[in-house]
Amino acid sequence: MKVLVLGIGNVMYADEGIGVHFTRMIERNFTFKSKEHTLNFVDGGTMAAFLIPIIAEYDYLIVVDCLDADDSKVGDVYFFDFEAMPKSISWSGSAHEVEMLETLQMMDLAGDRPTTKIIGVIPKRIEPMSFALSSEIQKAVPTMEKALLAELERLGFEYERVSNLKITDISEDWKKEQF
User: Fold this and answer.
1) Which among 63, 52, 157 is positioned nearest to 113, based on CA atoms?
2) What pLDDT, in 10s, does the model give residues 155-168?
3) Strands of 77-81's sheet, edge to edge?
4) Count H helices, E strands: the chain?
């Protein structure tokens, strides 16, 4: 089985980029192996529908993104099957979220969507552009990491920690690489 961990988000708007930064952090902090499966990590940014040809190549998709949910607070983490999305969840917080939801729905209609799980976290909405992640998001990262590693282990992957980079290390590295 081909497994894809897809980080979604706009890193120029602070917490909106958590999916991208988190995916990069996991890829740099761990090595994964499986006798029967392959695993890839992709920074999907805000590309949404342009990701369809990439996503369609996989059998199993784990999307990491921010989202909104009724009665939630900043930093709350959700992990769910796309087909059983809780009614309290809405992907209405920013344009990239709506586009990703529509992308998955389009793939569903075409029969191309792989089995899909979502790891979502409630972001702090920051209007002016910022690359800094809120303290609430930083505190949510261990829960997100635990959920992802448990799911990958359930799928048959073994993993080993090879580094201890923090999410702030990753977001700062991204900023340095771009500017």
Assistant:
1) 52
2) 999 999 999 999 99
3) 38-45, 2-8, 60-66, 115-121, 77-81
4) 5, 9
